[in-house]
Amino acid sequence: MSDDIVQLDSNCQGPALPLDCMVLKLEGIPEPPRIFRGIIRPSLGCFFGPAKSGKTTLVENLAYSIASGQDEFLGEPLFCENRRVLLVSMEEYSRSRTSRNKKQMDAFSKKHNLDPSWRDNVFVVDESFPRYLLSSEHWKLLEREIEKIQPGFVMLDSLSRMTTDSIEDSSVASKLMKPLRELAHKHNIALVLIHHSQKMDNRPITIASLAGSRIVSQELDYMIGINRTTANARYMKDVAYRYYPDDSEYVMRFTIDDNQLIEAGEDVYESDLISSASVSLPVNDSDKIVHETFIALAAGDASIIIKTKELYQAMVSTGVVTRPTLHAVLKRLEKSGVIIKPEKGCYRLAESS
User: Fold this and answer.
1) For residue 270, which of 317, 337, 225 has the smallest C-alpha distance?
2) Has this prediction a pTM greater than 0.70?
3) Domains along the sequence of the chain with CATH
4) Which end of the chain has fewer CB atoms surrounding its CB within 10 Å, N or C?
């Protein structure tokens, strides 16, 4: 037996081989550079969080920064040798998405004084792309587009659009995650999934918040959380990385401006954001319904004015709440600092505190 071990050591034959042989095999091969935080090529990971927290917008901004050759994003080092990016959105219809993307890219060009040629690095899918990836032909179409474009960074929005079965089922999750990982490694891409979490209600965002079977999290190389408190404070959190530290006590606050561009804020304790938001939580079902409807109408934007008649149409005419209840709730939300009344019949969300 000892002779066999010596022979294996001298020949360095795999797949099982002595550790020192593996060290020699990798000697001289550089570590893959990080694109952003713990994202490398190739890799499979996700940005996840509750609805309307800013996940897609943040990743779009990251993609524009890569495509235009920026050396930082949100104050963090950024590097991707392959500047081609592919944004695959199955959540939105192409017209509304394209309108937003154009607005973003126009503002991004102006902000960074960019030559228009950088936009040639940004690819999207049109209305002929399927809204769900439900067949082998759909998956082949995705791979063909990746082979044609040869991007370094790909966003798939969202994971829930890749199956009609429940990803809480481990067998479903396993069948879904395997081809995604193979796609990332075969084409040497940073494959970013947009994924949902359960409703947060001013709780810290953790791996346990990730929707789906634990198989999903086990297959991911990184999980970056995007959350928004009821006080409208948005933040990004390093939840878990395979190749990068994830033990920071801080999260990064960010805002989204009128052009849907991301602006970095300060690093703060997540617990401070959660505790400061908790005092403004709606106290009953009617308050929660009105507050959530208000956020939806404003798309989470504190600059958007919502008129009383819009709230009537959304809730009173549909029988969700009565007119007296609506006015009582608006007074409570205004008093608690959740919304602001700049003039009669007009409201807007309060700025993040």
Assistant:
1) 225
2) yes
3) 1-29 (no CATH), 34-276 (3.40.50.300), 282-349 (1.10.10.10)
4) N
